[in-house]
Amino acid sequence: MRQSDADPQYGQGSERRQSNCFACQNRAQSEWFALADEELGFLNQAKVCNVYKPGQIIFYQGNPCLGIHCIESGSVALRKTDANGHTVIARLFHAGSTLGYLDYFSSQPYSGTAEALTRTRVCFVDRGAVRQLLERNPAIGYRFLGTMARDLRDAEQSKLELVALPLRARLAHLLLVLKERFGEVAEDGTLAIRLPLSRQDIAALLGARPESVSRAIRQLAAARVAQFRGRVVHVPDLDPLLDELEDQSAP
Asked: Fold for domain 165-249?
């Protein structure tokens, strides 16, 4: 069964475009790298690709997982909603990431809602095609196992940072991560980071209250480390931002 733009359990992809797995720049980092050319050709024919605008939903929490999603370009937020209706961003994904594979292998519904933060191109591979590829080439399973291990390690590191680092340092770390994909250098040499997240979403990612994040933002501004103007962060010099982390790691 293929994903359909009209299927209510999925988001409404604004465009459908053909994508070539052979030319995908993220192939070497993906679980599909173990595929032979013939198997990769099968994947290329089996998948369905959609382009999503910012804010569009790729899949919804609680709906059946019918396959695996691969991000070819763009950024996606995974939002999770608790029993009381509170929604937070649990994680960010970027080009080369695979979505829904844990739900697929555990035969569980989607554990979160995937929302496009930027213009995002996503390829969907239905469960039948995934099963055939796993049967043809078991090495794919080992690559997915490696992805699971890395995700678990990253989750443990994030928990450690929540306990060990003060909020100001965690905010600085998030800015350093976001600058790789959303930062650009102005003519005067300053760095501008265009945030794809609201302050409430930033607070959820950092495990803090929005008012605490606002206070940390004011502290960074007072120290002339970073100036927040709407969703654009201006960083005059990268070294003071790096120092925010180094100062916390010093013995």
From this structure: Arc Repressor Mutant, subunit A (1.10.10)
